[in-house]
């Protein structure tokens, strides 16, 4: 075991982690621990753009953006946070441009902007061009630009280090972050990082679904590490299903395709979104479009022999426009489906895309131990966190924005905290939990296999807690997950070595997914209403009287060691906007 | 919307959803077990429209958990899974079984020129060091920083568009015979990333980067074999970019 000491430790090197690192490295001695090489993160898969009311191509302002964000989140958004997001968006985009990001340009040389789902002029009048973009690889360009600037600033990375435990020490009755425990993939060695402040920027949990746009590595490691140490998880029942994933594969096809004029059609060629969202049509918010697609499929108007998908039609757009604005996604269609998007429509289905919920934080990125109490020294930003700027449904282009605004904020806050704080003592045997977990898996002779359990988890999640949910389906999922968690105790691995043991890490990642899936399902069961990404067929309406509140899920361990989930609730921060019926 | 085409797509989808038997012939190496690397064959049932990465996962998940490779996004964006498939550098997640003749064994090896650490995993550090050495970041003089964005014409932006696509997968660099023979050579990927800034109208460190690449291990080592362009999973015209850097060194115009 090795012990390291840093002022600030950042867990994850995607957009949020690297944006935080650029700030914290200037102010404090910082280490970035990342389970992948920095440019491998899934920020790079984001395509369509980053929202900011620059008003470069038409009238726009941050207040309209705030409203759209609040409405898009079905009023579960904390409005103070949404206002910060929309206001700081403008500087966040300009900062990236100054760092070198090659945005597409207007004829007069300013940053070009395009339409995106749910973003509107003057509180819903018509779509507005608010998304700043670099072709359909905006996330790739953000990730590359941030890494380039990390190289420039001399940010210290520990690549292929898996953070497996969060260390907490009680000082004068207050639980402080003391550091983290990491596993080095190359050697199998355990590293304890003592740090004054820790920022989680470790991304989402999408891999508990089968059809997902998420990378294999998005297994909720940060959420699980915090949750196991008593940090609650907020709004985990809210998961976004992106309307246009490649049929069966789930690979993302950007909403920018519809922003450029793409149209969704059913088997009769009908532009069905006109029925569901007369104003915004194909550019309604993602939850609305995904439900509409599944409604078409359920009512027998889906395409293909099994009627299990619909089409994204780009054939009426000029090939030059597709080449210039959507080169990557048209290539995906050619590579993975053998389809030429100039002439053929692309088969799509909704794909599990984004966790609105996560580790609760305030607007400085400080993690909350309950509805109000900050955990000194602990921060989170990006998809792992829940600020909450996305509420019940995130708008497209608001996540690339979120990672930049709140990555920056948490980087500054964590470093400034480290400048004035002292190290807190490490707990006794800080590595004990990780060592025990690894030894148990390595020595297990059980007869369960990681791949089997993961497949069963993904299938039950797709079948029971996807776009449409009922009490019955969620209960089925809860029972199945409990069974899988029991069987997980008998999981064994084949690779017993120390060097690059990805067999071992996949087993640990599955444990994280199972734990988080359970929190998600239990939170969904208790929310007896429909709001944003959480749609209950047995409770099809939003219920502001009983459920205009955030879910807070706590892990409880009884005296006999049995685990359970305790649900509590947190009020939503409302400033300017009263909840209204949500129409697009 | 052209309905007849739809029918064709559907029909093809239905017709080809059958499994075939293929052999994966994989170069194995684990110094914890043996100092020698060996070939190992695995037979599996797979839909020919699946990816080579899907085949590797089937082996790892169902047959041999010790098989080790890097991967993340699984659709050609993250750059983790460059490997040598049937003798050519490709991304395993962007290569469909049907496109590489499944009649014969599919050989899978680590990319060349970088130290193999285990199975298909290589030491990427020398690759990233070469990248860092070319100053891969925008350099501007702070004297008159605008309050808004810097202006750039669409034409100036287009000038370096191709080289912004790089995902740092190392498929190009590890396909280069010069790099195989002399690990000191910067390699195509580093030059591509230098190109991305040298030809960016906003950047003011072109001269410095050109001097770095004027070094004996710089662009002049390139023998224009075009392996890099063939290998690039992003379709970047790598050799052309290297030629443009060479020309800029001669003319000092860029």
Automatic annotation (TrEMBL), chain A:
Residues 7-400 form the FAD-dependent oxidoreductase 2 FAD-binding domain. Transmembrane segments: none annotated. One of its GO terms (biological process) is electron transport chain. Its EC number is 1.3.5.1. The keyword Transcription regulation does not apply. Flavinylated by SdhE, about 5% flavinylation occurs in the absence of SdhE. It is found in: Membrane. Pathway: Carbohydrate metabolism; tricarboxylic acid cycle; fumarate from succinate (bacterial route): step 1/1. The active site is at residue 286. It is an enzyme of class 1 (oxidoreductase). Residues 454-584 form the Fumarate reductase/succinate dehydrogenase flavoprotein-like C-terminal domain. The keyword Nucleotide-binding does not apply. GO terms for cellular component: plasma membrane. The modification Tele-8alpha-FAD histidine is found at residue 42. It catalyses: a quinone + succinate = fumarate + a quinol. Its cofactor is FAD. NCBIfam families: sdhA_forward (TIGR01816), sdhA_frdA_Gneg (TIGR01812). PANTHER family: SUCCINATE DEHYDROGENASE 2 FLAVOPROTEIN SUBUNIT (PTHR11632), SUCCINATE DEHYDROGENASE [UBIQUINONE] FLAVOPROTEIN SUBUNIT, MITOCHONDRIAL (PTHR11632:SF51). This is Succinate dehydrogenase flavoprotein subunit. It comes from Streptomyces monashensis.
TrEMBL record, chain B:
InterPro entries: 2Fe-2S_ferredoxin-like_sf, 2Fe-2S_ferredoxin-type, 4Fe4S_Fe-S-bd, 4Fe4S_Fe_S_CS, Beta-grasp_dom_sf, Helical_ferredxn, SDH/FRD_Iron-Sulfur, Succ_DH/fum_Rdtase_Fe-S. Pathway: Carbohydrate metabolism; tricarboxylic acid cycle. Its EC number is 1.3.5.1. Transmembrane segments: none annotated. Its cofactor is [3Fe-4S] cluster; [2Fe-2S] cluster; [4Fe-4S] cluster. It catalyses: a quinone + succinate = fumarate + a quinol. One of its GO terms (molecular function) is electron transfer activity. NCBIfam families: dhsB, PRK05950.1. Belongs to the succinate dehydrogenase/fumarate reductase iron-sulfur protein family. This is Succinate dehydrogenase iron-sulfur subunit.
């Amino acid at each position: 075991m090795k012990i390291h000491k840093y002022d600030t430790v950042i867990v994850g090197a995607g957009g949020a982690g690297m944006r935080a690192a650029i700030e914290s490295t200037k102010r404090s001695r910082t280490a970035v621990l990342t389970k992948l090489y920095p440019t491998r993160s899934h920020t790079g898969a984001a395509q369509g753009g980053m929202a900011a009311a620059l008003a470069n191509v038409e009238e726009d302002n941050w207040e309209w953006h705030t409203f759209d964000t609040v409405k898009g989140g079905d009023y579960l958004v904390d409005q103070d946070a949404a206002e910060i997001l929309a206001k700081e968006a403008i500087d966040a985009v300009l900062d990236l441009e100054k760092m070198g990001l090659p945005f597409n340009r207007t004829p007069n040389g300013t940053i070009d902007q395009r339409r995106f789902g749910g973003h509107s002029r003057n509180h819903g009048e018509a779509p507005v061009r608010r998304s700043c973009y670099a072709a359909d690889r905006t996330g790739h360009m953000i990730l590359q630009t941030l890494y380039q600037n990390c190289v420039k600033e001399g940010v210290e990375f520990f690549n292929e280090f898996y953070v497996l435990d969060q260390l907490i020490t009680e000082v004068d009755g207050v639980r402080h972050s003391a550091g983290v425990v990491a596993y080095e993939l190359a050697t199998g060695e355990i590293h304890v990082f003592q740090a004054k402040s820790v920022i989680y920027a470790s991304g989402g949990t999408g891999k508990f679904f089968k059809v997902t746009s998420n990378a294999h590595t998005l297994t909720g490691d940060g959420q699980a590490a915090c949750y196991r140490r008593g940090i609650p998880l907020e709004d985990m029942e809210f998961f976004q299903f992106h309307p246009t994933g490649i049929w069966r594969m789930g690979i993302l096809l950007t909403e920018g395709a519809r922003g450029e004029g793409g149209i969704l059609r059913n088997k009769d060629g009908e532009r069905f979104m006109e029925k569901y969202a007369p104003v915004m049509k194909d550019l309604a918010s993602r939850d609305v479009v995904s439900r509409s697609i599944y409604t078409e499929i359920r009512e027998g108007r889906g395409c293909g022999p099994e009627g299990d998908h619909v089409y994204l039609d780009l054939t009426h757009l000029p090939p030059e426009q597709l080449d210039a604005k959507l080169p990557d996604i048209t290539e995906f269609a050619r590579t993975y489906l053998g389809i030429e998007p100039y002439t053929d429509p692309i088969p799509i289905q909704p794909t599990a895309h984004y966790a609105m919920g996560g580790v609760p934080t305030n607007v400085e990125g400080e993690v909350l131990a309950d509805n109000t109490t900050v955990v000194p020294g602990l921060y989170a930003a990006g998809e792992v966190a829940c600020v909450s700027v996305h509420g019940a449904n995130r708008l497209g282009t608001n996540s690339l924005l979120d990672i930049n605004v709140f990555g920056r904020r948490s980087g500054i806050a964590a470093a400034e905290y480290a400048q004035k704080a002292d190290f807190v003592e490490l707990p006794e045997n800080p590595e004990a939990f990780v060592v025990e977990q690894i030894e148990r898996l390595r020595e297990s002779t059980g007869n369960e296999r990681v791949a089997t359990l993961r497949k069963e988890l993904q299938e039950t999640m797709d079948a029971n807690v996807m776009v449409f949910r009922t009490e019955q389906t969620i209960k089925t999922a809860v029972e199945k997950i409990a069974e899988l968690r029991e069987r997980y105790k008998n999981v064994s691995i084949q690779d017993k070595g120390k060097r690059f043991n990805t067999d071992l890490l996949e087993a640990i990642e599955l444990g994280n997914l199972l734990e988080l899936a359970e929190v998600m399902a239990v939170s969904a069961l208790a929310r007896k209403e429909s709001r944003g990404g959480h749609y209950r067929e047995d409770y099809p309406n939003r219920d502001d009287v009983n459920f205009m509140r955030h879910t807070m899920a706590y892990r409880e361990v009884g005296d006999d060691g049995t685990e359970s989930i305790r649900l509590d609730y947190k009020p939503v921060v409302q400033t300017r906007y009263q909840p209204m019926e949500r129409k697009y | 919307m052209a309905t007849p085409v739809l029918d064709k797509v559907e029909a093809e989808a239905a017709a080809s959803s059958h499994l075939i038997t293929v052999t994966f012939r994989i170069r194995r190496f684990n110094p914890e077990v043996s100092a020698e690397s060996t070939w190992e064959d695995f037979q599996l049932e797979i839909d020919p429209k699946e990816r080579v990465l899907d085949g590797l996962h089937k082996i790892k998940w169902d047959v041999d958990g010790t098989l080790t490779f890097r991967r993340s996004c699984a659709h050609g964006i993250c750059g983790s899974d460059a490997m040598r498939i049937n003798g050519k550098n490709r991304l395993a997640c962007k290569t469909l079984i049907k496109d590489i003749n499944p009649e014969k064994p599919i050989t899978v090896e680590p990319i060349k020129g970088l130290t193999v650490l285990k199975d298909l995993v290589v030491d990427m550090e020398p690759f990233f060091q070469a990248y860092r050495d070319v100053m891969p970041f925008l350099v501007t003089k702070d004297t008159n920083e605008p309050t808004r964005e810097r202006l750039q014409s669409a034409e100036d932006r287009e000038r370096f568009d191709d080289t912004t696509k790089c995902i740092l997968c190392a498929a190009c660099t590890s396909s280069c015979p010069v790099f195989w023979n002399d690990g000191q050579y910067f390699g195509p990927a580093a030059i591509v990333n230098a190109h991305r800034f040298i030809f960016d109208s906003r950047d003011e460190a072109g001269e410095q980067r050109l001097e770095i690449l004027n070094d004996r291990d710089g662009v002049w080592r390139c023998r224009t074999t075009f392996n890099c362009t063939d290998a690039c999973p992003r379709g970047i015209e790598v050799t052309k970019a290297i030629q443009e850097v060479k020309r800029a060194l001669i003319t000092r115009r860029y």
